[in-house]
Amino acid sequence: MDHHLECIGCRARYPSIETAYACKSCGDLLEVSYDYDDLRESVNASLWKSRPLSVWRYEELLPLDKGSVKVSLGEGGTTLHRAARVGKLLGLNDLYVKNEGENPTGSFKDRGMTLGVSKAVEIGAKKVACASTGNTSASLAAYAAKAGLESIVVIPHGKIALGKLAQAIAHGARVLQIEGNFDDALKAVLRLAQSNTSLYLLNSVNPYRIEGQKTLAYEIWDQLERKVPDTVIVPVGNAGNISAIWKGFQDLSQLGLISHLPRMIGVQAQGASPITEAFRRGQCRIRPVQNPETIATAIRIGSPASWKKALRAVKGSGGLMETVTDEEILDAQKFLARLEGIFVEPASGSSIAGLKKLVEAGAIGKDENVVCVTTGHGLKDPEIVQRMFEKPITVKADQRSLEIALGLNR
Ligand code: AN7
């Protein structure tokens, strides 16, 4: 499909086959760019309704060549849950949760990986690699397995959730644990990919990943019967996802399919919140956090690669950035699980926690149509629940003991 890559800073243009992850003249990130006049002719939005809700429903808006293999595990098509009970708790009448934990490997990363790994196959790469706080590595490993490619993942030692590590190992990735945090891992793997061109890097600095992830916006719009929500709330770590969702809504606008844009709200964990800091100070650059710390290991990122795209999304949409504490994250994870039956990992709890905080502060109104994106499944990180929630009671296996334990003996 016809497209090119464009620098988000100096707007230098590169051909679509370019495998660089940064602008050669100014070093900024690249993004995929289209001629929307052409796209308007090839897109038939009523045709989409005849296809299953999924990433590939929108294939005319995904930059893969006709005839290229789509490496798919059935990604996207996640439920947009009407969250009436959490809405009631918070005093909101029109709240939805887009639960990305329902993806094949349990996180939104699959949307980007289906396209990213398809791209890797299209350009003839044999090895794919990423740095990860966990979910990207799980997703990359699975899609690489499906495509028959070798996968290499670089992770911070001892700092990724058990379920995610198990996935990467199970799918046969070569797992390298480094001393250091995610930011160190990303720096190392970027350098590795830049000097070993046989490695195709699939972190979100790869603009094709972002293109896959933008389908989250299309699905929300489709599931709201082609209406745009007032507000979309997203957990933010490396900041690829919020940038991707914003790009998705902008596509719909460029194509004339929607007449206004939602407000984008990003939520970071307090110990890892350089973008929120910059937003609050009105600065146009972030100051990286040297030692990011949060219980939400997925978003334990001090130097987010896509900070500039994220600030543009938030500012350009009239949105904002918020922070939440670990305590608020765990509280939200728990009440979402108990009121809605939706079990998410701590990083995803942050969007719900941010919502609660913003409603209480009056920044979100009770009749606003709000979509909270929960990004990863709760089973990714069972240790958090074991450690932080109630402990099970051990009892003898007789009726009397069970009754005593349950308070049924009065
Ligand atoms: C559940 O897996 O960065 O702001 O390496 O796993 O797009 O980075 C994960 C990020 C939110 C933040 N929720 O998204 C990785 C990684 C969950 C996540 C985020 C992540 P971005």
How do you describe this structure in short?
By secondary structure, the chain is α/β, with parallel strands linked by helices. The chain has helices at 36-42, 45-48, 84-90, 109-122, 135-147, 162-170, 182-195, 207-213, 215-223, 240-254, 274-281, 307-316, 326-340, 346-360, 382-388, 399-406, and strands spanning 4-7, 13-14, 30-33, 80-82, 95-99, 127-131, 150-156, 174-178, 199-201, 231-235, 263-269, 320-324, 370-374.
Which key terms come to mind for this protein?
410 residues; alpha/beta; Rossmann fold; six-stranded mixed sheet; 13 strands; globular; binds ligand AN7
Level-1 CATH class name of the domain at 80-106 and 209-388: Alpha Beta
Low-pLDDT stretches: none
Instruction: Outline the biggest β-sheet.
Output: 6 strands, mixed
How many strand elements?
Answer: 13
Q: What form results from the Cα inertia axes? A: globular
- Fraction in helix: 25-40%
Report Rg.
Answer: 21 Å
Q: Report the CATH architecture of the domain at 80-106 and 209-388.
A: 3-Layer(aba) Sandwich
> Which hetero compounds are present in the coordinates?
ligand AN7
CATH topology term of the domain at 80-106 and 209-388? Rossmann fold
Helix-strand category: alpha/beta
Beta-strand content estimate: 5-15%
- How would you spell out the order of helices and strands? EEEHHEHEHEHEHEHEHHEHEHHEHHEHH
Structure annotation, total helices: 16
For the largest beta sheet, what order do the strands appear in spatially?
A: 4-5-13-10-11-12
Oligomer: single chain
Mean of all residue-level pLDDT scores: 97
